[in-house]
Fold this protein.
Amino acid sequence: MLEQEQSVEQEVDIIVIGAGGAGLAAAVSGSAAGAQVVVLEKSHEMGGTTQWAVGSISGACTRLQKIHGIVDSIKDFQEDMDLFTADLLPKDNFELRSLLAQEAGITIDWLESMGIIFAGPYPEKPHRVPRMHNTIPGPSFILKTLLDKAIKSGVKFLYSVKTQRLILGEEGRVVGVEYLKLGKLYQLRARRAVILATGDFSGDELMRRTYLSKAAANAIPICPQNTGEGHLMAQALGASLCNMDIIFGPQMRFPRSPKISFLETIPNWSILARLGRFLLRYLPPFALKLLVAPLMVSNMSPSEKLFQQGAVLLDADGDLLNTDTPAFSMAMSPSKKAYIIFGQATAKLFNAFPNYVSTAPGIAYAYVDDYLAARPDVAQAYDNVSEVAQALNIGEQKLSASLKDLPAGKIVVLGPIYPMLTTTEGGVSVDTQCRVLGMDKSPIKGLYAVGCVGQGGMVLRGHGLHLAWVFTSGRIAGSLAPKLKAA
């Protein structure tokens, strides 16, 4: 008999594994439906991959769309989503995509009802109307709000715990979990259901090398804690996995700023978020840029258009990398680290729209001077090649050969940058109730999967669709699981 941990009951209604966006949404939704909920999180804090997002959620027929006179339909939303992934539609999950089209707007309104503020909606082609709702001041506000809501409603959280396996009861029903904490094994029973919200598998090297291309397998996961245990635990019970080989990336990405942005320190007070929405709507562009500058230069992806205008990409040894596929070239380099280097003409070009270094879609843009001012850890200007060679610890002769086509004058260096995986697309097979399905397509009793682990074969390309599924699937599973007959 395994020792029981004393900080929670030995039996609850619902166990949620993972405290990212999907897990928090499931916990709040489940608690609101009257269930006793416990969340198990392997890290020492909540957040998951959601905390690394820009904070865009796309949806149709929302309250904000109606306020701005935007006429939309579920059918149009789904058709436009299809345009993002036309080449992959034969592999897509039509039923789940239909569910997302129907429910994403409801999820945005649900989040608004808890005090979360959105700016927009903003346009993004090929969406025919504006659908991109951006959280103010960012995704951390959603996470903090959901966490506060969950705690106030009685949800309990256990951190730094590693789930080992799912426990089966009679008739193959999932009735609990076994987890490891401080070297001891514990069991926690679930009267109603277990909800997997463990994220993707990008942090597990073996799974990356099993399912992905060599370049993707070599890339650096943005959330190393996402090691695919939800995938593996469900698979151990006979669940099928879908589209494990599909991925959008890797992508070039700057490291996170070593300085804590004031946006990250703002309390999740509704009045502050409402002020932020007002400022985004009415501030002149120069003032708006000052407000969102910390967001624009924090952990963003540099535009590949830099390479079309004279920039070169060098690895840490000073060797030229292929700029046609820059992130893949970086992933295959020994150091997995690179620098974007260009001269004055390119720097001038990328100091004005439409040529930007990075962007938060629909909000604002960051240019070369913004990076030089706000991110001296990843952006520097030098007078000559000798200074660059000394700063990057690369031999001057070799560097001169690599930069021979660069015009004379000042040299701008952006980096280091890294080839990173934000998320993998492959997930556990689920139905439109987010119930995990076995190989025979029948539900595994008492088991749900949400977010990336429960993506069910959906292919989500385009801004705001991953977060839309994260919060939508969590909300749906959390509301349905309490209705299951108790085990």
